[in-house]
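Hello support,

Our group uses your service weekly, and this is the first time we've seen a run hang past the timeout. The protein is Segregation and condensation protein B. I'm not sure whether the cause is the sequence or the server load. Input pasted verbatim:
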Amino acid sequence: MEHIQQHIEALIFASEQSITSAEIVACLSSVAGTDIAEKAVDEAIETISQKYEGEEHFFELIALSGGYQFMTKKRFAPTVSSLIQHRNKKKLSAAAMETLAIIAYKQPITKTEIEQIRGVNCDYSVQKLLEKELITIEGKSDAPGRPLLYATSKLFMDYFSLNSLNDLPQLKDIQTTNENEIGEQTEN
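Update from on-call engineer: The timeout came from a worker crash unrelated to the input. Re-ran successfully.
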């Protein structure tokens, strides 16, 4: 098999958990259509391990749980930890996601209209969505008291990979289940 080392690197990279030599041999043999020697795989793994020991790489090949896995070098742990903490802060609660969905489909919309749809107060959710810059204030309504109008932001469009609001799933695209129905359904 040509470029066996690159194929092994690809398998290790794509594996979410450590991958054993036996699994690598099985995968490579399947692709090559012929048996690949475990000794050849072990030698290639040793070469790969040495290749990534250098300072120019931020990751290394680690023997783990009887297999192999690419791992970030320990000196980069604070940097990676910072990313994980940053991303965890961006998670939205179910209430915030519901509020965001209502705003996305009904924009521009007032907080009172959102609360009428949800049936609960949404002050906290709206505030969190504004802080995360997923929604913006579009102006004021002509209704009494001139309440603020909310709409989705450019960050919302980027985050959900949308070119326009027309790319949002339509109701007919959403599969519904009858799990929440009570009683037997009868035909009229």
